[in-house]
Design a protein that fits this description.
Layout lengths: L1 H20 L16 H30 L4 H27 L1 H9 L3 H28 L1 H6 L5 H14 L6 H13 L3 H14 L1 H12 L1 H4 L2 H12 L1 H15 L9 H15 L2
Helix pairs in contact: 2-9, 2-10, 3-5, 3-7, 3-8, 4-5, 4-8, 5-8, 8-9, 8-13, 9-12, 10-12, 13-14
Length: about 280
């Protein structure tokens, strides 16, 4: 009930803001026009996040089905760990999503130096936030679990699971930044693939494989292993993108490119390298 009321109040606030407060933004139907690739660009930006949310639900259902075999305490513990680990993950995801408009603005202005400065600054912030959060949660992992429940068996499972889930905490933000960089420059395909890998193609088979080999002690490390693999893979399109951008920014003065030509060459090169 509290979640529903909170969402309803947030919706009312946004409606009020769009209808009464802002003069630049509007939700009037007369401005809804599917032209100039507006719809495709909106879907391109939102598709990876939509797939990520959907696969999170699917993978959670599968994980709960696997944990049922180990008793109700294990199922209860993983629910608590999800909520506790959200603080580490969503804090970095919020930072990565917050700078996404800055990536888009600077890419549109062909200001790649500032683009990469923002990327590096954001990644440093994510590393610091992730490391401090993991340190805090590791030191107080048992009291944090006991905030949700005081059952000794559930707490024992929860401490073990939270420790396993925190392994990817210090660097998961870098994955989100790399994905948002790809989305901001119009290359959502690599970001979509990374989302599918992290919560689907990699995670779900890993859960079954680790359960068959190591049992519960293997299952709880499935998400961290999938995060580590996806994190490493995310640097492939990111490095290609950065290399192409540097090459185009180093074009000699005698072959000066207009902003449009430069952007066109960048898009063609990236399409060949990434897509």
């Amino acid at each position: 009930m509290a979640t529903t009321i909170g969402n309803a109040l947030a919706c009312i606030y946004y409606l009020w803001y769009y209808l009464k407060k802002t003069k630049l933004l509007s939700i009037s139907p007369r401005y809804f026009k599917c032209r100039d690739q507006v719809l495709s660009k909106v879907c391109t930006i939102g598709l990876p996040s939509a797939i990520l949310s959907a696969l999170m639900s699917v993978s959670t259902i599968i994980l709960n089905q696997i944990l049922v075999a180990y008793g109700n305490s294990a199922v209860a513990a993983i629910g608590i760990v999800f909520k506790a680990n959200m603080f580490i993950t969503f804090l970095q995801m919020g930072v990565a999503n917050g700078v996404q408009p800055l990536f888009g603005y600077n890419f549109g202005a062909h200001n790649m130096n500032r683009f990469f400065d923002i990327e590096r600054f954001t990644k440093n912030c994510c590393i610091i936030i992730g490391a401090l959060s993991v340190l805090l949660f590791y030191v107080f992992r048992e009291p944090i679990i006991r905030l949700f429940i005081n059952d000794d068996e559930v707490v024992r499972y929860g401490v073990q699971m939270l420790t396993a889930y925190m392994i990817s905490g210090p660097f998961i933000g870098l994955l989100f930044v790399n994905m948002n960089c790809m989305q901001s420059v119009g290359h959502a395909f690599p970001a979509t693939i990374l989302s599918v890998l992290r919560q689907g193609i990699l995670l779900i088979p890993l859960l079954y494989l680790l359960n068959a080999i190591l049992g519960l002690n293997g299952v709880i490390y499935g998400q961290s292993i999938a995060d580590c693999i996806t994190f490493l893979l995310s640097f492939i399109p990111a490095l290609i993108w950065e290399s192409v951008s540097i090459i185009l920014n180093w074009v000699p003065a005698r072959t000066i490119l207009s902003g449009c030509d430069k952007k066109k060459r960048m898009k063609n090169l990236l399409t060949k390298c990434i897509s």
